[in-house]
Specification:
binds molybdenum atom; 5-stranded mixed sheet; 23% helix; 259 residues; 7 helices; single chain; 2 domains; binds ligand MTE; 5-stranded antiparallel sheet; Sulfite Oxidase, Chain A, domain 2
């Protein structure tokens, strides 16, 4: 779907000044799907935006680079937890995750839970992308998974929902604190944001997050929660964990880890 903006010059300049000044604010009213095309048209229309403004309008919506099979790393390492140390997770793994259900709740019209088969029935996407860890390593891998946007269509987020929180199975310390992460709705609806159940054409290995891990391709590795058990839509993450939006964020990492 291409949207041809028909905006008279005065209004157009006003919009561009607004963009340069306020960045994303202007985007709020537009339809989610049509925004990208609209801005690409504006940007390609020869308009001069400041570099900062251009970055603001393009970076959140743009696609992460995708690669070919030939680019794939021979080995995709595991980082952080490689096998969650919890009896519940170990029981699920022993049964090949047949009893697994992904719970989706919070600010949604229709809370739901999904078996792996149901997740595989959702519209999917396959992508070969580069994973960048904040610790300084990268790897190119192939991911296949359910589009998070398709799952959200089922549960129908309420208008006040602003973030998607992923709760994971792995305890991170003796206190039992489990890994968690969060993203905003912009990333949740991004076409490359998938709940991956396959890596490199195989069922997702335990070391890489079985049975489900999220891919958020324009951010660093720690955003890509593995071992996801539950998803919650919230208006604020202030009361979750230590309030910074993720396990590593609570230790001082940035919440928005753009690449
Ligand atoms: N549940 C959970 N998710 C996690 C982590 C973790 O320890 N637990 N580590 C994160 C980090 S820092 C990175 S780089 C990637 C590593 O993914 P990989 O194990 O597939 O390489 O997972 C991220 N997601
Ligand atoms: Mo990482």
């Amino acid at each position: 779907m291409m949207i041809e903006p028909r905006i008279e010059p005065g209004r157009r300049n006003f919009l561009i000044r607004m963009l340069a000044a306020g960045g994303g604010l202007l985007l709020a009213g537009c339809d989610r799907l049509s925004r990208t095309e609209w801005f690409v048209n504006v940007l390609e229309g020869g308009e001069k935006l400041s570099h900062a403004a251009q970055h603001l309008v393009t970076s959140r919506k743009s696609m992460a680079q995708e690669f070919t099979e030939a680019d794939m790393s021979p080995f995709f390492r595991s980082n952080g937890t490689s096998n969650p140390d919890s009896p519940q997770y170990q029981a699920l793994a022993e049964n090949g995750f047949t009893d697994y259900r992904l719970e989706v709740s919070g600010l949604v019209e229709q809370a739901a839970s999904f078996s792996l088969a149901e997740l595989r029935d959702l519209p999917s996407r396959t992508q070969i992308t580069r994973h960048d860890c904040v610790e300084g390593w990268s790897a190119i891998g192939k991911w296949r998974g359910a589009k998070l946007s398709a799952l959200l269509e089922h549960v129908r987020p309420k208008p006040e929902a602003r973030y998607v929180v992923f709760y994971c199975a792995d305890p991170m310390d003796e206190s039992g604190t489990q890994y968690y992460e969060s993203i905003d709705m912009e990333d949740a609806y991004h076409p490359q944001t998938i709940l991956a159940y396959e890596m490199n054409d195989q069922p997702l290995p335990i070391a890489n997050g079985a049975p489900i891990r999220v891919r958020i391709e324009r951010q660093l590795g720690y955003k890509m929660a593995k071992y996801i058990m539950r998803i919650e839509l919230v208006a604020s993450f202030a009361s979750i964990g230590d309030g910074k939006g993720g396990y590593w964020e609570d230790q001082g990492y940035e919440w928005f880890a753009g690449i």
